Amino acid sequence: MSTDQDHRSSERRAEDRLWRFWVSIAAGTFVVVSLLVGLIVLPLRDEARFDPWGAICRAIGIRKDGSTVTKKSSDPPASSVTWSAGTRLALLGASPESGSTIVKETCAACHGETGVSVDPQQFPNLAGQTEEAIFKQLRDFQTGARVSDIMAPIAQTLTEAQTRDVAAYFAAQKRVEAVGSSPSASANIVELAHIGAPARGIPSCYSCHGQNRSGPEEAPVLFGQSASYIEDQLKKFASAERRNDMFARMRTITKQLSPEEMHGLAIYYGDGGAAKP
Amino acid sequence: MPAERQAVNYRVKNLILAHIGVSFATLAAAAVLGAWQMTVRTGVNPPFATPETYFASVSAHGTIMGYVMPTLFTMGFGYFVAVTALDQPLPSMRLAWAGFWLAAVGIVAAIIPIVMGKATVLYTFYPPLTGSVFYYLGVLLVVVGSWFWVALMIWAMAHWKRNNPGRPVPLAMFGTVANAFLWLWTTGGVAVEIIFQLIPASLGWTQMIDVGLARTLFAWTLHPIVYFWLLPAYIAFYTIAPQAAGARLYSDLMGRLSFILLLLFSLPVGMHHLFMDPEHGTGFKFLQAMLTALVVLPTFLTVFTISASMEIAGRLRGGKGLFGWIAALPWDRPMVLATCLSFVLLGFGGFGGVVNMAYAMNAMIHNTSWVTAHFHLIFGGAVVIMYFAITYWIWPILLEREAADVRPLRLQLWLWFIGIVIMTFPWHVLGLLGQPRRIATFDYANPVIAQWQPWVFVSMFGGYLMLVSALLFVWNIATLYRARPVGDNRMHYAVAVYPPARVPNALNGFALWNWLLLFLMVVAYGYPLGQFFLMDVYPGLVHRVDIGS
């Protein structure tokens, strides 16, 4: 009787082993084959023509040079501005009239009383710029998210409510007539602006910087700025000297741009410094 | 066959009635909200229609239908199965009631902030949006309450196996415990997201939230949660439907295999919800797409086995020829009718799902109404119609009463079926036309968008049919309380054609399968989750919806 039971339980154990063995083989084979196809075969088939090793790295989700494999979670946020309901409601309640008084006293010397800059190469035109863009930059100057020896002390004299009023005032002014879409721009610059360069991970400029506005709240309107100002900012983003762009959008994009492309795009968007009210 | 004919004793009636009762009470509320949302989308501006109320309503509808209704139904049905299939009392009534009350408190805690407009984050949470902390705590309480149920199901089966060495666990209980393990695995992702990301953000302890990590953790939960909803329907297919049709189950073994495969292939697959997301490499998306495809195995096993069981029933009733057995089936019985309707909906929903899980086609319908159509067909259609049928089967047993007339029951099932078809088929078309989901209002003055409007109106009509059906269901259950007492409270599960005398250990427990699942989860999610802790990531700024608005 006991030998019969022993026999049966050893039979059971043999059966269990068989199940474990075949289940492991089946699952292991399936996973290995899927990973081979997903991480190596398909990336090579689809993308080999420009970069086989890069294609495999992308399939894993890493960069070829391993540049992102460093943890920098201690970085401060790019900006402390959030587009919450609270921010929007506060902006809705801003007063251009009281903004006008502050502008005359504080801003007009450089940016002009109506937001048309006295020297667009150094100081951007603010007339008709979006309220959100001006508000965010002023807040960033105040918190130090955007570094400027000139603007930081000036912006810090304003309360948050005054900051909103100033933004509302400039936003209400008539924009500097933009030359825009420079007809002399080369085909690849026009393509960068309108389509971007998907292979390099560059979205089109237009997707955020349209004729009036589009994209994220803080994206400024570029038409009407001087080319040299735009080019300067692009370079600062590329070198990460300027780093108040949310989600590092502009730093990521400009890192991929060549100096010639930055120059071309700046001319394409800019008015050549010839501000015409 | 003592295991197949058991009375509902052991003082569990109120426990089961409480779970399923609360479940369907919330369903009725969700049906009203759903119909109202459909009306808003047509552009006719019903009362209270603003974007704020619309998204609050969507949040409530999703929270009920995602976390509350199916969870409580599955818990109640699980207690029913544990007592009737095993013929033993629950291991701990106190624990079961504690789980129920935790969930009940959680439901109230979650719904109040939604109604106040302080948790308009939809049931999928969408960080960096964060709502009132009470909402997350409420959802967490529902989940924790359901973990009590998981413990009781596993405990009950282990207890039964100790007392019945060598005997196969009854199939209904095997499926229920498969679902309990599935749920335990499933809730891991969302619990981590709520506890470590959403609650700290909603309390203002953190200003930044890693959206990619949150989305990945939620994807871990979002697919298997649907299988958790689905499994009670499958348990009914295998263990009740053949009995209702007057025959036997074609194969007990197929049932066990299906439950195991559903457990395995529900979990390491959620990344197919993230095909269009940038935070993951294509290789892991591909692996999970392949694992997703394996769900055809348990699906086809089930369709084949249940069809075969039904054919046996049809032929026993005198059906002849290739298709004659279908006509000979007892279509007047709600369970038989619902099983067939559920299969039809599962077929259409599965077709849409294949499009979703195919990487290239997914790009075409991503975030459109097509996706909404798919999960309403599968869950609102195929699964909920079986919840109705299961309730029509077990509620009379619990009350020891019998409905005098089953025509209102059949009418209710047909209304639900027709309603969901009319509602979701136009959504598929709208999805292909590019209509985005999660949008409150459309500018129908735009000629491109104007062509959507007729389809939206048709689907609204379907939504109202479902509302009528849901209310008729509540009426049908209410009238049962005045129906004729029969004094019979025995539950009859379907017996297999060849009832297994013994089954391999592998098909009588879950140890092997939980180990295998651990392996698959490590392969599928190990690096995709690990990368967030290795890489330089740019978290999103927390956007709290409950302040400033």
Unreliable parts of chain B: 1-5
- Strand content range of chain A: under 5%
Helix proportion of residues of chain A, in percent?
A: 40-55%
End-to-end Cα distance of chain B: 63 Å
User: Helix count of chain B?
Assistant: 19
Overall geometric form of chain A: elongated
Name the chain pair with the biggest interface and residue counts per chain.
A-B, 40 and 40 residues
Shape of chain B: globular
Q: In sequence order, what are the helices and strands of chain A, one letter per element?
A: HHHHHHHHHHH
Per CATH, the class of the largest domain in chain A reads Mainly Alpha
Short description:
The complex is a heterodimer of chains A (277) and B (549). Chain A is an all-alpha fold and 277 residues long. Chain A is built from 11 helices and no strands.
Identify the notable features of this structure and list them briefly:
heterodimer, A: 277 residues, mainly alpha, Cytochrome Bc1 Complex, Chain D, domain 2, 3 domains, 11 helices, 0% strand, elongated, disordered C terminus, B: 549 residues, Cytochrome C Oxidase, Chain A, two-stranded antiparallel ribbon, globular, disordered N terminus
